[in-house]
Design a protein that fits this description.
Blueprint (H helix, E strand, L loop, with lengths): L26 E5 L3 H7 L4 H22 L3 E8 L7 H24 L3 E5 L7 H14 L6 E8 L1 H14 L5 H7 L10 E4 L18 E4 L9 H12 L9
Parallel strand pairs: 1-2, 1-5, 2-4, 3-4, 5-6
Helix pairs in contact: 1-2, 2-3, 3-4, 5-6
The structure holds 3-methylbut-3-enyl trihydrogen diphosphate (IPE) (2 copies) and magnesium ion.
The site of one 3-methylbut-3-enyl trihydrogen diphosphate has 11 residues, from helix 1.
Length: 245
């Protein structure tokens, strides 16, 4: 049936999606929210919440591989997060440096292909260099695509994509999609947001057109593999109609 994801060919490999696996999401995006509240509840500095948040990221990236996801997109730093106090932004950038340095070897051995969503070139030059090194080292990997959104805003992404599409000729749905930061990734199936907030906060607006949503009150540092599995199970039981009947 047209529109049934189980009958679509895999956009990356061109292979048919195996019947029975059609209910497993291929691409999951997570809005990792609640680090600040996690720390506040414990009377700890916000930086501790972000530090524990990185540990949650590590667990969830491993779990995505275990669950066999094709792609995982993680919202790590939005283009609006620059509005935060300078010391918090600097703590987050410090954690980003540490994370890339400590986990790149694991991406290499676990066949993880790193991708960046957003205008990462506006980050500090040493971070840009680290990112480009990590992208080059993992670009041939065929396992899970890990797309980390850094200095990402979906409206900014759409403006960039529309300009690139216009420069190449006509603006069409296909030409916009081909110029988004997510180009080459499978369609977005499921968006998860932690911490009880139920909004997109400028994340993957175009890509979420037919995505399913799953919300939890759990604060990001407490989000683990078991709860991730619950979200995937819940997704598996949903019927997607894509406007059909
Ligand atoms: C998410 O946690 C991390 C980033 C946005 C970088 P928050 O820092 O937004 O935590 P809350 O929402 O204040 O609890
Ligand atoms: C969204 O969280 C951005 C990330 C998770 C990186 P925010 O905490 O910045 O979102 P708002 O401000 O509550 O919408
Ligand atoms: Mg928040």
């Amino acid at each position: 049936m047209i529109g049934d994801p189980a009958s679509l060919d895999d956009v990356i490999t061109g292979e048919p999606v195996v019947p029975g696996e059609g209910h497993m999401p291929r691409h999951v995006a997570i809005i990792m929210d609640g680090n600040g509240r996690w720390a506040k509840k414990r009377m700890l500095p916000r930086a501790m919440g972000h530090k524990r948040g990185v540990e949650a990221v590590r667990n969830i990236v491993r779990a995505a591989g275990d669950f066999g996801l094709k792609a995982l997109s993680l919202y790590a730093f939005s283009s609006e997060n620059w509005k935060r106090p300078e010391d918090e932004v600097s703590d987050l950038m410090g954690l980003l440096r540490q994370y890339i340095q400590s986990d790149i070897a694991e991406f290499e051995s676990n066949d993880v292909c790193l991708k960046i969503l957003g205008n990462y070139k506006a980050l500090a030059p040493d971070i840009v260099e680290m990112i480009e090194d990590a992208l080059a080292r993992t670009s041939g990997n065929k396992g899970t695509i890990l797309a980390v959104a850094l200095n990402y805003g979906s409206q900014d992404e759409l403006v960039r994509a529309a300009n690139a599409a216009a420069a190449g000729g006509a603006i069409t749905e296909a030409s916009i999609a081909a110029n988004l930061d997510t180009a080459g990734m499978p369609p977005l199936d499921l968006v998860i947001r932690t911490s009880g907030e139920q909004r997109l906060s400028n994340f993957l607006l175009w890509q979420a057109a037919y995505a399913e949503f799953w919300f939890t009150d759990t604060l990001w540092p407490d989000f683990g593999k078991d709860e991730f599995g619950k979200a995937l199970d819940d997704f598996a039981g949903r019927e997607r109609r894509y406007g059909g009947r």
